[in-house]
Design a protein that fits this description.
Length: about 110
Amino acid sequence: MEHPSVIRPEAHAEWRADRMGKATIFQSSRLLVGLNAFEPGQSHALHAHAGMDKMYQVLEGEGVFLLEGRELPMAAGDLLVAPEGIPHGVKNTGSGRLLVLAILAPAP
């Protein structure tokens, strides 16, 4: 993909039956923009990042953000920021697909 350009994230979704699909939309030494695609029931286990913050933006679907023993409901339009070192994850608890934009800074 050539940058800068207008991006329609959903056009880059990688749907997989066996596990969450991941696609990188943009990456530099300062920023990573990724896309996580979840079929119903799929999840991204609790994890944390050292030295970087992560932002999730729900593009479509519904589910829960996993945060240190809590489950926070999420739906299209919702945003969550997981600062460095805070365990976080995502689970699709809905009956349809879940598409989440993930932005990390600085890039891993």
